[in-house]
Batch of 2 targets.
Target 1
Amino acid sequence: MRKAALAAILAASAVAASCASEPPATEPVARGRQVYREQSCASCHEGSLLNFFRPVGPELGHIGTVADTRRPGVTAADYLRQSVTDPGAFVVPGYPDSMPRGLADRLSREDLDALVAYLLSLR
Ligand code: HEC
């Protein structure tokens, strides 16, 4: 019973934290981190109570390094940009093709660049 109450409190504070708005950062990596949060990327890429610690997508903790190895001849930056703007172009083996579509239309050019810079920084 106590565990359930604690879980509910944790979940509620996680939701509250993700809803709190902050002014847009000017530094690209910091801005990219904000975009990542605003677009709820973590809901599929990080384990949490909300997905029972079984995220549907691969974890991105080292994606800046991993991205370099995904497709021969494609730079990490290009791979990451394409992962967001054209997710069906390459589907990570073992995962469903369920990255959201249309992100490129929802994000400004600056925010997309910042998001890529943030992902690249996760080495
Ligand atoms: C609805 C769930 C979902 C959401 C939301 C989501 N993703 Fe994904 N993502 C996936 C899945 C599943 C994959 C693996 C399949 C594939 O490659 O498309 C993936 C793959 C990726 C990859 C490639 C990872 C690798 O190891 O090569 C990147 C980068 C990525 N997502 C970034 C993002 C970013 C940034 C956001 C937020 C703007 C986001 N994703 C939102 C489900 C999601």
Note: The mean pLDDT is 92.
Target 2
Amino acid sequence: MDQTKQETRISTNSKGVDLSRREMLIGAGALMAGAAISQLGLVNSAMAAKVSSGAEGWPWPYEKVDPAQAGETAYHHWYKVFCSQAVTTGLFEQLRESVGEPWTNFPIESISFGAGGMLGWGLTCGAPVAGALVIGLAVPKEYSNAMIHDLLQWYSNTPMPVYVAQKPNYQGEIPKTVAESPLCHLSVGKWMKEADRGFGSDERRHRCASVTASVAYRTAELLNEWKDGTYKPGSAWNGPGTVGLPAQQNCMSCHGSDIPTAPR
Ligand code: HEC
């Protein structure tokens, strides 16, 4: 679809909905309800606790996970549920066994949307998205953000895939490529170009299953290091703080030498 058509479609879809006004009304309604409740003296600690109850007992208890087993499970689940749900399955499987609740109660299917960088949109690869979810559940905030940075850096800069399945569904060598990005589109696109294989090929499927396994393995390693007290955060990247908008670091790979600057 050309750009004009896409723009037309977007504006037709949103016709007649004045978002700014709708948001104002929702906001005002919520404020009024809040004021009424506090006037009645109904805002008490019990209610506050009810609202924030999702965070009770968080971060969740973590026991070390065998990275190779997490990788092998993730590899084989990729063929059924694709990258993001396969990573959660690989990591949750052992935690459900070793810790039990609350890991047993989380609906891991809920993250299946990560496949293909969110349902084929080519955004962030679903494997590190799912790895980040598990890190976020198990690790306190002061470490989890650093660990997610590390996972994205490693994903972007490593010749992938690194994990070799014990029982692979494709026998034979496939090339390794460096995505230089956590984006699904770039990661799988660069590999397909190098391998000269289509998206539906056995080689591409084996490649994405192996990348998924690699991410499950690496996430388990990072979590285990943290559990052992040996985890050392790498360097964090802050696009808005550094270049004035969220961005990958390697500007030139997309912009060439003509890198635009964001208004400050
Ligand atoms: C993965 C590819 C990619 C990377 C990496 C990337 N950009 Fe972009 N950026 C884009 C695309 C695509 C656009 C939209 C360009 C357009 O529509 O003309 C854009 C737009 C922008 C804009 C908005 C203004 C404009 O000219 O469109 C700025 C500012 C910008 N990028 C800065 C950066 C900086 C600084 C970096 C590195 C820190 C960076 N970008 C890295 C792909 C990228």
Note: Residues 181, 243, 245, 247-251, 253-255, 259-262 surround heme C (CB under 6 Å).
